[in-house]
Write a structure and sequence with these properties.
The protein is of the alpha/beta class. It has 2 domains: 159 residues, Alpha/beta knot; 89 residues, Helicase, Ruva Protein, domain 3, CATH 1.10.8.590. Helices cover 53% and strands 10% of the residues. It contains 10 helices and 7 strands. The longest helix has 46 residues. The structure holds S-adenosyl-L-homocysteine. S-adenosyl-L-homocysteine (SAH) binds next to helix 7.
């Protein structure tokens, strides 16, 4: 694996215990991984984190802090979220071995990967999982399914090392898929267009938005494909604006017609 610099960031979402951050850094370091990203950690840097890192100080020192999940995922082309439980959302589920292979394949085609871990008590929220291409569940017993955060990091890091050792040299392929930041910009445009064309007809947009999000994450469009979709949305918006103008004109001319008729009859009197 050492000949490939794996662009895989381990993202810890709102970790509560600094000791877990340190233990996660150690777990990554033992498997040759170093990109640690933290979103709103409760305490960091912290002596407990340093103690639990047991010498993996370089990983801790290089940790990148983010204000929110969007910022942490922005440049990535593949995001996988670890969760002990299937939540109420339908998302492809992988085991850590399958996930590791998916991540190595993505790196081999010059993609950038994020693997996301939840808070110790609350795990990942549905909205957070919805930003991922798939969820990863470490098989465990139903009645006691939740591992310690750093232990979950260890399992994932180990599987990555195993999959990386077996992997072949990077292969060039089609254009790299769009980053999650580019996809977010597209989603915003899509939601706007759906409003403009009155697609929801008064219904709440959340369910359809989540389904569309899932569809596009699965399709993994590249940048050029996204440009085509942006063009398509812009064209729809223009048609909608013209239609709105025409119907406004209709209303106008109807009003003018009424006024004209009024005047005419007045004139006749
Ligand atoms: N009480 C939380 C568990 C949090 S454990 C819950 O039920 O969701 C902290 C994090 O470790 C989780 O958010 C997840 O990212 C990871 N984790 C723990 N056990 C896991 C498992 N069996 N499979 C996948 N991820 C797990």
């Amino acid at each position: 694996m050492s000949h490939i610099d794996l662009d895989i960031r381990f993202v810890l979402m709102r970790p509560s215990h600094p000791g877990n951050i340190g233990a996660a850094a150690r777990a990554m370091r033992t498997m040759g991984l170093s990109r640690l990203h933290l979103i709103q950690p409760k305490r960091f840097p912290d002596a407990q984190a340093t103690a639990m890192a047991a010498g993996a100080d370089d990983v801790l020192a290089g940790a990148v802090l983010h204000p929110d999940l969007g910022d942490a995922l922005a440049p990535c082309t593949l995001a996988l979220g670890l969760s002990a439980r299937r939540r109420g959302i339908t998302l492809e589920e992988l085991n850590p071995r399958q996930a590791a292979q998916r991540m190595i394949d993505e790196c081999a085609r010059a993609g950038r990967v994020a693997v996301l871990f939840g808070n110790e008590r609350t795990g990942l929220e549905n909205d957070e999982l919805a930003r991922c291409h798939a969820m990863v569940r470490i098989p465990s017993v139903d009645s006691f399914s939740s591992l310690n955060l750093a232990q979950a990091v260890q399992v994932m890091a180990y599987e990555l090392r195993m999959a990386g050792d077996l992997s072949v040299e990077p292969v060039p392929c089609r254009q790299p898929v769009a980053s999650l930041e580019q996809l977010e910009v597209f989603f915003e445009h899509l939601w706007r267009t759906l409003e403009v064309i009155n697609f929801h007809k008064g219904r709440a947009p959340q369910v359809i938005e989540r389904r569309l999000r899932k569809l596009f994450l699965r399709a993994a469009p590249d940048w050029q494909e996204l440009q085509i979709l942006h063009g398509l949305l812009a064209a729809s918006e223009r048609v909608a604006a013209r239609t709105a103008m025409v119907s406004e004109q209709d209303v106008h001319s109807a009003e003018e017609g009424v006024a004209a008729t009024g005047e005419h009859s007045n004139g006749q009197e």
